């Protein structure tokens, strides 16, 4: 116990020290929100990766989908690496950096408002971010409860209050640079930790070969395929349709998440994007691939996990149950790993929420003539407010019927990605996209995800989110073809000037 506490205290000390040192870069809005757009490839890649993967993935998603799909869950990790990371950096990175830099956009709503010349579009986008990032933020805490209880016997309430307070302090002090540097430190902890955990857990089952043999003998109880032999070691698992929904939501969905694409705004140059793409992909392969690979063996812990009164597994208990057999040294490392993953994601979410609400909703609409100093103060105050609200929701959720942390994340992720992915992608690449098509995409995605929450006609919130994203890619071009065209001269000038700057930066880098 003393050793585990010492690891935690050392982690807290390093985190606060970084926040204190980064405060000099957070004196104006550009510095506080984007690190002055001077963030290098390593910091950007780790900021992207650690914002992508939190306790929701390691505890919630890996446990739930590893149980449902067995080793086929590894497809999700591969999709996260090659679509959610590598392809995202190559398709979005350079154009996002060029166009947002030219428009001086600091948030996703600010980009959409400037790109489509619509103040109301910007306000609506800010409202969507505000509403749907809060439950996502609350879901980040939940993955810690069982892990901390296993390692320290600590009450869940104290765990999330401690994490919230620590994250709030270093983000308020140092802004984006504090989160980027801390994300890099936390990312290395996650890399080392996930490898050590996989080796230890498989060793407990007699090694990889013996674990695979044992998993191949687990009876399949999936409706519609019950009785299939070796389902949990098969290529596509017992339920490929729902596996595809998870694959699409978690891999393609990050293309439309405001806290993710904002990492491209802050990178120092377009030349740094190539290196950042490779680093980010390697990180995703290790962390996401490792998490789902580990979760794929979840059914081997069926005798020690928690169950509901209906005798269905409590998915959030699967990974902690697998880790409980490890030595104390590795349990302490795992706690720091999951805490790192959660704090990095939490810091990114609250910084995105507070900056969006300040710059896109309050500024010029309710608080007129805000000075730069006042904008930074309001952002800092809202960071505290968002942390408090998300903490309260997490505490309420812990005692409610929403028992699986994947639910909150899936609803938020589906709504945000469904609303923003297509408008953002077409806004970067296609001059013919119209503001009307963006409005229709917003209404369809939010309406579909929210209606599914109450009536469930699409099925799971994951499938609803995946459908909303794919539909948006069709809705935006179709509606754009039948609605008033944008000002061709203005849009043409925007594209020419943005990519002229992009070309000039590439020449300077060479």
The CATH superfamily appears as Sodium/glucose cotransporter
What is the number of beta strands? 0
Decide which structural class fits the backbone: mainly alpha
Provide the CATH architecture.
Up-down Bundle
C-alpha termini separation = 53 Å
Query: Helical segment tally?
Result: 20
Mean pLDDT over the residues? 87
Task: Give the low-confidence spans.
Answer: none
Classified by CATH, the class is: Mainly Alpha
**Shape by Cα distribution:** globular
Question: What summary fits the major beta sheet?
Answer: none
Q: Strand-and-helix sequence, N→C?
A: HHHHHHHHHHHHHHHHHHHH
Query: Using only CA atoms, what is the Rg?
Result: 22 Å
Strand content: under 5%
Tell me the count of domains.
1
Q: Can you tell me the CATH topology?
A: Sodium/glucose cotransporter
Amount of helix:
over 70%
Question: What distinguishing features does this structure have?
Answer:
75% helix; globular; 20 helices; mainly alpha; 510 residues; Sodium/glucose cotransporter
